[in-house]
Amino acid sequence: MATLVHNIIDGYHDIMDNQSDPRVNGWSMMSSPFPTLFICLFYAYFSKVLGPRLMENRKPFDLRNVLVVYNLFQTVFSTWIFYEYMMSGWGGQYSFRCQPVDYSNNPVALRMARTCWWYYFSKFTEFLDTLFFILRKKNEHVSTLHVIHHGCMPMSVWLGMKFAPGGHSTFFALLNTFVHIIMYFYYMVAALGPRFQKYIWWKKYLTSFQMVQFVAIFVHQFQTLFIDCNYPKHFMIWIGLHGVLFLFLFSDFYRERYSNKNNQHKGACMPVLDDKDSSKQVERRPLED
């Protein structure tokens, strides 16, 4: 037993010290997977147990103004990350067919690695989506699949950041940040209330766009299984499976939101603020012209 434990520890240190990207070893949260894992586990516990318990005997918070600011921040933040991904590879230097990781200290390669780190950081800021549901006592939106969606992402991105901060699989992050630009802009306008909601008539197509994103992701990843590409295939499979999982999550929401006769919001992935929430909040405290 002691030998087995010793071998496991040695194997762990070999992977962390000898098989990871040495450029990122000294970066924040990159030396060990355990801080990220702990945060993700606490997020799951808070989302399903602690948060609803703390809010059980409290009135829901009116967060309309907070949501406007939050979604504006996420829109700008996602736009910047998308721009950095374009400038560090996907704007012309990268191949959509097969793109190995550049592990050199080339300024462009380092810029890509830094962009990957900021994308990793953005996954933590998205935990606020769930927090706002809980503070508004919209616990029906915090489904198990919703928590899996948000809770798995930081750990998955950490693995990519630690071992392959660049290359083929960053196409996932590129598309994801582009969709988030549109998504959080929509949420921001929705949070402004009914007076502005006539400008987001295209909300039905947003979920369709998200599903197209996930189809593009798993096609882009799985196509490398049939060609010779110098990129870790286990990462390609892992990211491709993310595309399949998230396609299921968002197709579930689309089906429930647009096919359910009662129009009940029971899908796995829900918006930060829906139309009815906006209307009720505007009635209590109308926006000034």
UniProtKB/TrEMBL annotation:
It is found in: Membrane. GO terms for cellular component: endoplasmic reticulum membrane. Keywords: Fatty acid biosynthesis, Fatty acid metabolism, Lipid biosynthesis, Lipid metabolism, Membrane, Transferase, Transmembrane, Transmembrane helix. Its EC number is 2.3.1.199. The chain crosses the membrane at residues 26-46, 66-83, 171-193, 205-223, 235-254. The keyword Lipid metabolism applies. InterPro entries: ELO_fam. The keyword Lipid biosynthesis applies. It is a multi-pass membrane protein. Its main location: membrane. Pfam families: ELO. Residues 269-289 are annotated as: Disordered. Residues 273-289 have a biased composition (Basic and acidic residues). GO terms for molecular function: fatty acid elongase activity. It comes from the Eukaryota. It catalyses: a very-long-chain acyl-CoA + malonyl-CoA + H(+) = a very-long-chain 3-oxoacyl-CoA + CO2 + CoA. PANTHER family: ELONGATION OF VERY LONG CHAIN FATTY ACIDS PROTEIN, FATTY ACID ACYL TRANSFERASE-RELATED. Belongs to the ELO family. This is Elongation of very long chain fatty acids protein.
